[in-house]
């Protein structure tokens, strides 16, 4: 038996979040989220259309355009954002399919930094930490500020590499 270093907990749970994301049929971004209390996995979720409804891979994305006024170095500018409104985000599905009692004091591992809406929902969910891999610069500043105000630990995993897809089985 070959010896290999044991994965740390952040890597272990983030690997699971990325595995969960493979269930998503979203052509724009596959996102996975897991709920962890201590070292116990309590729930998983991914982004997609509501159950029983055609998803974006079947009926196409439902893109909505929004405009937001942002301050950039003391100067205000209008930023155009596009988002799909057919998809329920992974964090939202995680909150829908887990119990509040399980969320109290728990950590959410998510493949992507939460958007503003998901961050708001997570902030009221009872969790105490959010750990993510890929940055989401559109909302990052205001999300970080709000998480800090709520006392929720909010961090990206450094030096993390998502798992590579497994090789096809040999027949």
Strand order of the largest sheet: 2-1-5-6-7
Strand content: 25-35%
Number of helices: 6
Helix content, binned percent: 25-40%
What is the arithmetic mean of pLDDT?
Answer: 90
List keywords for this structure.
two-stranded antiparallel ribbon, alpha/beta
Characterization of this structure:
The model has no long low-confidence stretch (mean pLDDT 90). The protein has helices at 9-21, 56-59, 90-96, 100-103, 116-123, 140-150; strands at 32-37, 40-46, 63-72, 75-84, 107-112, 129-134, 153-156. A five-stranded mixed β-sheet has the order 2-1-5-6-7, sandwiched between helices. It has a two-stranded antiparallel ribbon with strand order 3-4. The longest helix is centred in the first third of the chain and has 13 residues, at 9-21. It has 171 residues and is α/β, with parallel strands linked by helices. α5 (116-123) runs parallel beside α6. 27% of the residues lie in helices and 29% in strands.
Write the layout of secondary structure elements.
Layout: H1 9-21, E1 32-37, E2 40-46, H2 56-59, E3 63-72, E4 75-84, H3 90-96, H4 100-103, E5 107-112, H5 116-123, E6 129-134, H6 140-150, E7 153-156
Parallel strand pairs: 5-6, 6-7
Antiparallel strand pairs: 1-2, 1-5, 3-4
Helix pairs in contact: 5-6
């Amino acid at each position: 038996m070959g010896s290999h270093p044991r994965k740390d907990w952040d890597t272990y749970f983030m690997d699971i979040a990325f595995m969960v994301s493979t269930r998503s049929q979203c052509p724009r971004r596959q996102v996975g989220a897991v709920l962890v209390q201590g070292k116990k996995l309590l729930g998983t979720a991914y982004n997609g259309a509501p159950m029983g409804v055609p998803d974006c891979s079947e009926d196409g994305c439902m893109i909505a355009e929004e405009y937001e006024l942002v301050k950039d170095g003391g100067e205000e500018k209008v930023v155009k954002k596009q988002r799909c409104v057919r998809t329920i985000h992974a964090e939202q599905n995680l909150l829908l399919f887990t119990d509040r009692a399980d969320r109290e004091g728990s950590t959410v591992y998510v493949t992507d930094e939460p958007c503003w809406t998901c961050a708001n929902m997570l902030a009221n969910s009872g969790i105490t930490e959010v750990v993510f891999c890929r940055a989401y610069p559109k909302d990052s500043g205001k999300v970080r500020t709000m998480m800090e105000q709520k006392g929720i630990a909010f961090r990206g995993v450094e030096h993390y590499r998502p798992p590579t897809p497994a090789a096809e089985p040999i027949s």
